[in-house]
Request: fold
Amino acid sequence: MGNRKYTAEALSPWMKGEAPDRDVVLSSRVRIARNLRHLPFPMMASAAQSVEAMERLLQVGESGRLSGLGEVSSVRLTELSELEKQVLVEKHLISPALANHAQHGALMLGPGEDISLMVNEEDHLRIQCLHAGFQLKETWDTASKIDDIFEEAVDYAFDEKHGFLTSCPTNVGTGIRASVMMHLPALVMTGQINRILSAVTQVGLAVRGVYGEGSEATGNLFQVSNQITLGQSESEIIDHLHAVARQIIEHEKAARARLMSDSRLKVEDRVKRSFGILSYAAMIDAKEASQRLSDLRLGVHLGLLPEVDEGMLNELLVSIQPGFLQQAYGEALDSDQRDMTRAQMISSRLATHA
Amino acid sequence: MLCQECGQRPATLHFTKYVNGEKTELHICEACAREKGELIPGSSSGFSIHNLLSGLMDFDPVGLSGAKAQAQTLRCEGCGMTYGQFSKLGRFGCARCYKQFAERLDPLLKRVHGNTVHVGKVPKRAGGLVRLRREIDGLKREMQSRIEGEDFESAADLRDRIRELEREVQNG
Ligand SMILES: [Zn+2]
Ligand SMILES: [Zn+2]
Reply:
């Protein structure tokens, strides 16, 4: 994988720059699951069959068919160290299942890291596209085009009744899982989040609070995705998720406006205290760090922290993960060292950007 | 919101499940979700929405023990997986499993998706016949409504087009 910039930099190129509704939506993602017609799915495949699937799919990447996407790099997972794999997981470029369990797994990565194609994960092929901000339809269009390119070159497992056949019945049919990663601090602060979560699950979408190292949701980040893949068309799935996410965005924006009109001083105090702690703490655990970074992100979008750059916050969210910390410091860290390293990394970034 | 399973940890996973055709809301914590999905490979590290959903497929919640035992030994000719293995792992072994276990599959798909039939994208090459059949079905519905509207002339045009397409299907 050439110069390994994929594992060296915390922020993928696609995360940089302006994006629609960025103040609430960090990223939009679409994943498509596909299998080759004549080979058993990876779990039941022999070593030889797994190699065959891998070579056939990598061949599509190397044949130049994907050249419209720019220079696509391919790597077999066996060429990567454990730490490099962990870093790719923390950047959401590969799944933990591919990193830890795949036999003859491989990855094809677009130059902007907005496209990652996983081979021999649970299914033969997982096409994943990521866009910054709220761009679900654009993300689906990109993913669907890549799907069409592969379909010209290989025979997919498909049947008329069940659609695209996947190893797990929860993916069968369209094989797509679309999601938006949302930052909802004002809905959490104003106590409206439970009502919203309940309403969202009522309309057939799933929500997952995003974790730090422990098992509690931290950082007020929520991943909203479609639950159903069979019996709805791709555009119905995307449009539905889009419409619901749009409503959540509007609720969050309204809640932020209300916070500013009703309790501006309290919010300002909270944001600036977090800024102070992140700037000067000698140790900080992952949970507190994500909570306080959430305050900073809110502060930036409310105009309370004009000196802080939002791109830097996005970068910090990734670079305070354990794999990145360890990579940055070159050796294995115990938990105190990790908390110290994390605090240093955050305060030095805030000092250079603020 | 507290986890509705343990009532102790905050719920961080929110989704719905079909129980007897009724949608039910679930709000649970990651630990409880893991417990339910502990048989799912890969769930030990990095729990995803997908792990969660697959942990919640109920396999044969009720069933006569005799018929159930018989079903467990049903074996896919494509990959050798038995229905018993499938219901443990929650994963199919190959494309043919869908045909081999077809009889047991629809109730499961109904619980997961509320549906059993694909309506989305069709592959251009592998799905050529499927496209034709869908087009024929669409034209037949259209023809029916024209007949009902007593627009016999255009209904006859549609009939010719349907015959043409049916010939194409027959010739593969
Ligand atoms: Zn629980
Ligand atoms: Zn099989």
In short: Chain B touches chain A through 60 residues (CB under 8 Å). Residues 38-47, 60-64 of chain B have pLDDT under 50 and may be disordered.
